[in-house]
Amino acid sequence: MQMKSWIAGFAAILAVASADAAAQAKYPVSPVSLVTHSSPGGGSDVFLRELIKHLTPVMGTSFGVDNVRGGSGAAAIAKVAKSPPNGGMLYATTPTYIQTSLLSKPEIGYDGLDPIAIVFLDPEVIYTRTESPFRSVADAIAYAKANAGRAKWGAANPASLERIALERLKKAAGVQAAVVSHEGGGDLMINVLNGTLDFGIGEIQEIRAQLDAGKVRLLGVVTDRRLPDFANVATVREQGFDVVVTKFRGLAGPKGIPDDIAAQWERAIRQVVASDAYKAEYSKESLVLSVMGRAEARAFTQKFAEEIAGTLRELGVIK
Amino acid sequence: MGLSTLLASLAGVVWGIFGGALPGISPSIAMALLLPFTYGMEPVTAIVLLASVYVGAEYGGSIPAILIRTPGTNSAAATTIDGYELARKGRAGEALGISLMSGLVGGLFGLVVLVLATEPLAAVALAFTPPAYFALGILGLSVIASLSGGSLLKGLVGAFLGLMVATVGTDPVSGVPRFTFGSAELLGGIRPILIMVGLFAVAEMLEQISSPGWDRADGRDTRLKLPGLATWKRIWKANAIGCGIGTFEGVTPGAGGTIAAFMAYNEAKRWSKYPEEFGKGSVEGVAAPESANNVVTATALVPLLSLGIPGSNSAAILLGGFMIHGLMPGPLLFQKAPDVVYGLYGGLLAANIFMVLVGLVILTPCIWLVNRPKPYLIAFILALVCTGVFAIEQSLFDLGLVLGAGVVGYAMRRFGVPVLPMVLGVVLGFLVESNYRRSLVLSGGDHGVFLQDPVSLGLLAAALLLTGYSLIREFKPK
After folding, report:
1. How large is the ipTM?
2. Which structural domain, as residue segments, surrounds residue A30?
3. What is the arrangement of strands in the sheet containing A247-254, beginning at the earlier edge strand?
């Protein structure tokens, strides 16, 4: 199934090799295998396939996407961790790889990989159906305060970052609310649309269809700054509740990748995210650009994992 | 509609029938395998290709269900009951013909519903709250009584085994790993298809090679036989029941073809003039589930197209196909990309017609294939099943699960415990449990929530009626 992208990669190289060869030192490995735990068409798969379209000419090497499913990401992590540290195989990171490591303690966890870069943050938003009386997260919190035991909030999955965000919100606001987890975003959307829930939490791209059709309204964004596309929607922190979650998309490799390869990646990523063609694609998905090189990505991942572990412990999910 | 779209439809159906007929390759996997190839296609062509794979796969699952008592897909499990009995009586060609034409009836009916009634049916999807899903699962489980083949107690043993398997994985409410024994492989739960492949394919092969004189082929139909007028008269009611139930189950996200097929089988038996033939080779017992699961291929698109909500794994892959081409299914799709929507309708029509044409070509060779000497056949099937299961996730763990389930299935047959209730338990367990607990989280622990929700109340009442009716018939002195 990777054939197509290999071929596309080669074709792209032939087209631009002459023009770009001098622009950057040649990448030592070809082809580079980018591994994801998501199935074809899933979040990380689409992220990688779009990224390599733009990276191929810049890095002067070819890429293939390898969908290694199984074990909620554990299989993919193990495969990458055991590969030679020459930059020939990298893993597309999302918070899932940290959560899986914490929940099931597989032989090789997130700390068996070394972050190379973070590219985007996927903003989480709180939304409700248009018929709802709530205009902001503060409204919904006020309702929860006045009607003890009646508030119902929804998250897509039980051990997800979204549920963790709602549990933190509950604590920050000091209210009682039932946090209902679902089997994915679609399931959750139904219960928001039919009014079973006060509100749901999810990524912009998950709710885009309903948002464009005017069926749902944003109550707040759970990021540290407002989103450029939705400048009139206040952050949850602005509304008085100190909750920020950051879902990230990045790359990690086996331990021991030389610094110059990591630096090459950072340069290439910074170059492609600035290109207009790629910008048009990722801004359509409301991804927030947040490029971090190796050192920053390491610190970020470490801090993120500690926070998640802390919350999962508080929730009683892990000991 | 262009030539490329027609070709995509044909290619999709052929690949779908092939994938559906291979035990272990579910419709969604067959679609996922093709997804990367659609990146460079025109949007309409890509969507039609994927939807045609779905149509072909839902039909293809019935071929091994009839010929070797091994459903190729979850939703063909109900077809094994009477399909295989017919085949054993040398009427394989007839059973295959009925399943093919019932699939066509179901597929076309579903398409008409999809084209005409997407808006009102989307409202049905939205009426399903967690209590209603719980009740729907209970209604599905109420079919166990009639699948138990005589002993209700043994049927319940099977069902409980299935429900136990369904509890493995991440807890649906708290997120705590349950019965995973620290294994990351089990975090996502045990996929029903693996259990099915073990319980049916592997157990059937074990059963066959352990029966005396197993290596002699029995006399069978050697050609496909399409239903004649007399047969149509017998099966039209079963087809109508399948269409009705399939429509309803297809539009409720998460329910899907398996429940539809089992419930259609059960109701066809209830309303049949010849209920005593069910389980012993009834043509209606093939027609009802096969029309039901093919209706679902069209009606499952209702929540996807109108709300942007995928109701099944297959619909989720199709959603991926839309998004790769920058299309967002949902309330605005009909305005933003009407050409794709109508192209999809045309593609589905073509897919159903191609399904029959391809069926006419391949079914007679299929019958020939299973009439080969048994030792070769069984070795071939086992090799095919094992490579298929392993190839999908490259997981030896999955392969172990399948072989383990095969041994369990063999033991169950030896002790006369029916496997279909177990399949139902595996498929419905998570739906029932997660929605039960979700409802209680919503209501703050009050069980009254199941009676306050009108949809839930209605479905629970229906389940009670059906079970009561079956019990009375079971214990009524004859």
Report:
1. 0.84
2. 3-121+248-315
3. A63-67, A32-36, A89-93, A247-254, A113-122, A288-292
